[in-house]
Design goal:
Blueprint (H helix, E strand, L loop, with lengths): L1 E3 L3 H10 L3 E3 L16 H14 L16
Parallel strand pairs: 1-2
Length: 69
């Protein structure tokens, strides 16, 4: 299942990958489709991973394994 905004490219990706696609319409403020399909969790995860990536500050991928807690 791929839940996205209404961009045409996502529909094409879902068709190419042979997966079901649920699009929400951002313009009128629709947040959920069919009572259960939404992208808010994906948006939150995307925000968290971008914030986490700031700490790498352009580290070459060759050295990424050296950076750990």
């Amino acid at each position: 299942m791929l839940c996205t905004d209404g961009a045409v490219v996502y529909k094409l990706i879902a068709q190419h990958a042979a997966i079901d696609h649920r699009a929400k319409n951002v313009a009128p403020g629709q947040r959920v489709v069919g009572g259960i399909y939404h992208i808010q969790n994906v948006n939150a995860y995307d925000s968290r991973i971008k914030h986490w990536m700031v700490g790498f500050n352009c580290v070459a991928t060759h050295y990424l394994e050296s950076y750990h807690d």
